[in-house]
């Protein structure tokens, strides 16, 4: 039977219902909504889209195939989540994260802490090409330092995410930085150079705002910091050798090793360093009196796989020195799987394409074309819940339109990054929002307003389009 085309209203119906249900669910559950109820709401949204698909003659097998394609696209992300949980566990018991906090308390002055977070995360993300890896390593440590300094964790997380995504956007090692020009028909390094025109002003504004925020924050003071440092030193053996592990991970990623391999190496090295430097911690975890090979094995495997808590003489540090291991990432993985189910069905029934087409038909001027691209990226981030789809689908949909308007592909690839890549972290049920909130332990609602770089980037790119600033024309061959 011939498949019927969806109207715009019908294509939007599952999204409208989903947003309403998620809003009500968050109202009822608050911060606990990500514990499972939001995941089921996403499945309900997928079911509604599926019912519409049946009415419009879309086969059940077609929907399953799209869901399978979506799940396959995030296989790497799911494995990375598991390895991040494992790495966080061994980095805790080996003293790496405590050492980062310990030395960070000495180096980072409270008056410049927030801008320093941005700069540190930007450099590491630029070198590694991964905002996820940056958050999972130095980001966690900076959150801990911010807590002990008494700075709101939403601010710290916003600074970490702003810096991490700045570096991710401009790094040639980043998958999204390579994906955007590929979809737009451009060239990688031309795309990066063109993207600095909007990215540099965005990060400068972000740094200024965070410098002002730092100067207005009251911290716990030097005495409290010294007390915390003493509590860390009492529990862990702190030395510079511990930094060989994160340095090795960063070096592997810079050398273009697959992230999974780098994280696995970091996890195993964390376990080895725990055995070398933190034997008392291993005994405490297993409640043993003598360190044998069996005790060491159990302690390291428990840190990798399940929740681990290390008690110190300071109550605040007790909250910091807790890791969920791989088990702690299962909730996020569950959320991503359910989001991919919804996105897959929406794509299978043609709803995402119909919405993008409507946006494309509306664009009559250059500014409207840019605005349509931004709106399309945001819509797909909200519905398909994946930053890669927010680059791939609008990239394919808008490439010809930019060419017809005599606009260079760099205009499209830059807009895809300015609106698709960076805004994904601002959506709780998006893979990036779920990942960052899970890894950093800070809800999206807490860091949203402070992730200044991420939400200001789309406005900057639209400002450039509105005033025809650095809009590159297509060169005639």
Your description of this structure?
By secondary structure, the protein is mostly helical. The chain has one domain (77-329, 346-428, 442-477). It contains 24 helices and two strands. The protein has helices at residues 8-29, 37-55, 60-73, 75-93, 96-107, 113-128, 131-149, 153-170, 175-184, 188-216, 222-235, 244-254, 259-277, 279-286, 293-305, 315-320, 330-348, 351-362, 366-383, 387-404, 409-421, 431-440, 444-447, 452-466; strands spanning 308-309, 322-323. The protein has a two-stranded antiparallel ribbon. Helix 3 crosses helix 17. The longest helix is centred in the middle third of the chain and has 29 residues, at 188-216. The relative contact order is 0.16.
Mean pLDDT: 85
Structural class: mainly alpha
Order of helices and strands: HHHHHHHHHHHHHHHEHEHHHHHHHH
Give start-end ranges of low-pLDDT stretches: none
Write down the oligomeric state. Answer: single chain
Q: Biggest sheet, strands in spatial order?
A: 1-2
Describe the structure concisely for a colleague.
The chain has 477 residues and is an all-alpha fold.
Topology (SSEs and partners):
Blueprint: H1 8-29, H2 37-55, H3 60-73, H4 75-93, H5 96-107, H6 113-128, H7 131-149, H8 153-170, H9 175-184, H10 188-216, H11 222-235, H12 244-254, H13 259-277, H14 279-286, H15 293-305, E1 308-309, H16 315-320, E2 322-323, H17 330-348, H18 351-362, H19 366-383, H20 387-404, H21 409-421, H22 431-440, H23 444-447, H24 452-466
Antiparallel strand pairs: 1-2
Helix pairs in contact: 1-2, 1-18, 2-17, 3-17, 4-13, 4-15, 5-7, 5-11, 6-7, 6-8, 6-10, 7-8, 7-22, 8-10, 9-20, 9-21, 10-21, 10-24, 12-13, 14-15, 17-22, 18-19, 18-20, 19-20, 19-21, 19-24, 20-21, 21-24
């Amino acid at each position: 039977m011939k498949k019927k085309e969806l109207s715009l209203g019908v294509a939007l119906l599952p999204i409208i219902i989903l947003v309403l249900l998620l809003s009500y669910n968050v109202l009822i559950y608050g911060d606990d909504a990500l514990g499972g109820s939001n995941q089921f709401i996403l499945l309900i949204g997928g079911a509604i889209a599926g019912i519409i698909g049946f009415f419009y003659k879309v086969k059940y097998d077609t929907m399953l195939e799209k869901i399978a394609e979506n799940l396959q696209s995030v296989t790497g992300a799911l494995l990375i989540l598991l390895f991040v949980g494992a790495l966080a566990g061994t980095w805790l018991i080996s003293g790496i994260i405590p050492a980062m906090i310990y030395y960070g308390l000495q180096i980072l002055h409270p008056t410049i802490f927030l801008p320093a977070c941005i700069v540190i995360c930007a450099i590491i993300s630029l070198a590694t090409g991964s905002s996820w890896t940056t958050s999972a390593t130095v980001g966690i440590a900076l959150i801990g330092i911010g807590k002990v300094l008494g700075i709101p964790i939403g601010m710290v997380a916003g600074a970490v995410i702003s810096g991490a995504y700045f570096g991710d956007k401009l790094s040639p090692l980043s998958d999204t930085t390579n994906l955007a020009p590929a979809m737009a028909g451009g060239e990688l390094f031309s795309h990066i150079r063109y993207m600095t025109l909007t990215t540099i002003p965005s990060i400068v504004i972000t740094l200024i705002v965070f410098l002002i925020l730092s100067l207005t924050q009251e911290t716990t003071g030097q005495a409290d910091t010294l007390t915390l440092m003493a509590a860390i030193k009492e529990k862990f053996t702190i030395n510079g050798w511990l930094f060989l592990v994160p340095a090795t991970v960063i070096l592997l990623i810079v050398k273009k090793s697959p992230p999974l391999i780098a994280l696995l190496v970091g996890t195993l090295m964390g376990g080895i360093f725990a055995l070398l430097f933190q034997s008392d911690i291993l005994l405490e975890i297993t409640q043993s009196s003598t360190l044998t090979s069996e005790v060491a094995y159990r302690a390291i495997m428990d840190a990798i796989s399940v929740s681990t808590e290390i008690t110190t003489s300071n109550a605040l540090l007790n909250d910091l020195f807790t890791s969920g291991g791989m088990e702690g990432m299962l909730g996020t993985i569950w959320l991503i799987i359910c989001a991919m189910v919804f996105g897959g069905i929406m794509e299978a029934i043609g709803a995402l394409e119909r919405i993008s087409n409507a946006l494309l038909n509306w664009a009559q001027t250059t500014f409207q074309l840019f605005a349509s691209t931004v709106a399309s990226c945001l819509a797909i981030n909200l519905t398909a819940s994946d930053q890669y789809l927010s680059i791939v689908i609008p990239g394919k949909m808008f490439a010809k339109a930019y060419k017809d308007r005599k606009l260079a592909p760099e205009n499209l690839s830059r807009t895809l990054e300015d609106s698709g890549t960076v805004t994904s972290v601002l959506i709780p049920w998006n893979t990036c929002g779920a990942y960052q909130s899970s890894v950093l332990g800070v809800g999206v609602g807490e860091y949203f307003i402070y992730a200044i770089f991420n939400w200001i980037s789309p406005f900057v790119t639209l400002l450039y389009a509105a005033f025809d600033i650095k809009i590159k024309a297509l060169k005639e061959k």
